[in-house]
Specification:
The chain is 46% helix and 9% strand. It is mainly alpha-helical and 373 residues long. The protein has three domains: 147 residues, no CATH class; 71 residues, no CATH class; 44 residues, Membrane-bound Lytic Murein Transglycosylase D, Chain A (Roll), CATH 3.10.350. The strands form five sheets. Strands 1-2 form a two-stranded antiparallel sheet. Strands 3-4 form a two-stranded antiparallel sheet. A two-stranded antiparallel sheet has the order 5-8. Helix 7 crosses helix 8 and helix 11 crosses helix 12. The chain starts with a helix and ends in a 15-residue tail after the last strand.
Length: 373
């Protein structure tokens, strides 16, 4: 009983923790959870009032606030990432004359993480499933997934939300449909004979969805009120990379892009999370490279092609009778997975005597099979 009283006292009274060592006087105080969830109306989403004076809506909002405030490390990451991504998202919303509150959707969808995924196959900042993403113009292939590109996915999300708003006549319902699908929401509206989101009985995930957005709005709009006292140096800076237009005549290794940009493979992958593997497809695309690297980039990239062709001609292994991929990899001291990637092979794909395997990371060729079947 004494232990329970101690816990309740801490939760109700609030806590203070030092953000720096104790010999530094700057101290961060965290308001109590009870005081933090005392939200008074009015509160709205995209200008549409949320009925938080009703007991049901108030309880649903308080639950989401408590969960977010308890998970303080995740909320801190929201605040730090928001400084990087929100300016772009807000600019797109403003350009399309859409409500600014829509910017909180990718916060609750993905925590503003490019590589966030769900068990249902949703991916990226705005958590598009594959079919919906492709329907709204996103490229999703084995090599590129634009759901993980902040610019492309935001444009597609804006187009989808505009369509949902046109269908339902409400941004609150548009957000609910974004979460559960427009067909499912239309079905529930017809069966329950109401188009008021707050009066609809929906899947638990969707019933919570708008309240999660409202809770995120409250915290991100006034983080200091909830004990999140970040200084400018704490925040992640906005992207300052150069954007380059490419017209690739052939499948091109990402490593070649990195070398032309005078940087590493990792930097190119980090700047372009839509890249899924080690090669870029033939055709036109736009990539981010480090700031300042665009000067002379195209010339340096063009210079990579002859060197890659030369490397391919000098590093080829011709498969012999009795060879296996694992045996070749062991003999040449190359991981099997590396050999598969260099030659665009599947793990169980057969090889035959006379096949030509590339043994360098610059190869853009699939396994060359020259023997007769």
């Amino acid at each position: 009983m004494i232990q329970i009283l101690i816990v309740l006292t801490v939760l109700c009274a609030g806590t203070c923790s030092y953000a720096q060592p104790t010999d530094v006087p700057d101290m961060e105080c965290i308001p109590s959870l009870v005081s933090s969830i005392r939200v008074k109306p009015p509160l709205d989403f995209c200008g549409e009032p949320a009925p938080i004076d009703s007991m049901d809506a108030r309880e649903r909002l308080e639950r989401e606030l408590l969960l977010m405030l308890w998970d303080r490390d995740q909320t801190i990451m929201w605040l730090k990432r928001a400084n990087r991504f929100m300016p772009y998202i807000q600019a797109v919303l403003k350009d399309q004359r859409l409500p600014d509150d829509l910017k909180y959707i990718p916060v609750v969808e993905s925590s503003l993480r490019a590589l966030a995924g769900s068990p249902k196959g949703a991916m990226g900042y705005w958590q598009f499933i594959k079919d919906t993403g492709e329907r709204y113009g996103l490229t999703i292939t084995e090599e590129l997934d634009e759901r993980r590109n902040i610019a492309a996915s935001t444009r597609s999300a804006v187009a989808y939300l505009k369509k949902l708003h046109a269908d339902f006549g409400s941004w609150t319902l548009a957000a609910a449909a974004y979460n559960m699908g427009e067909a499912g929401l239309k079905n529930e509206i017809l069966l329950q004979d109401t188009s008021d989101f707050y009066d609809l009985y929906l899947y638990q995930e969707t019933q919570r969805y708008v309240f999660r957005i409202l809770a995120a709005k409250l915290i991100l709009s006034d983080p200091g009120k909830y004990g999140f006292k970040l200084i400018p140096e704490d925040l992640y800076p906005p992207d300052e990379s150069d954007r380059v237009q490419l017209e690739l005549a052939q499948k091109t290794p990402v490593l070649s892009i990195a070398r032309a940009a005078r940087t590493s493979f990792k930097v190119i992958r980090d700047l372009n999370p839509e890249i899924r593997g080690y090669y870029l497809p033939k055709g036109a695309l736009t990539l981010s490279i480090p700031r300042g690297a665009s000067a002379g980039f195209q010339e340096r990239l063009a210079g990579q092609i002859p060197s890659l062709a030369s490397a391919r001609s000098e590093t080829v292994y011709v498969v012999k009778k009795g060879d296996s991929l694992s045996g070749i990899a062991e003999r040449l001291n190359i991981p099997v997975q590396t050999l598969l990637i260099w030659n665009h092979l599947g793990l169980n794909q057969p090889i035959r005597p006379g096949d030509r395997l590339s043994l360098n990371p610059g190869s853009d060729k699939k396994l060359s099979q020259e023997s007769s079947p």
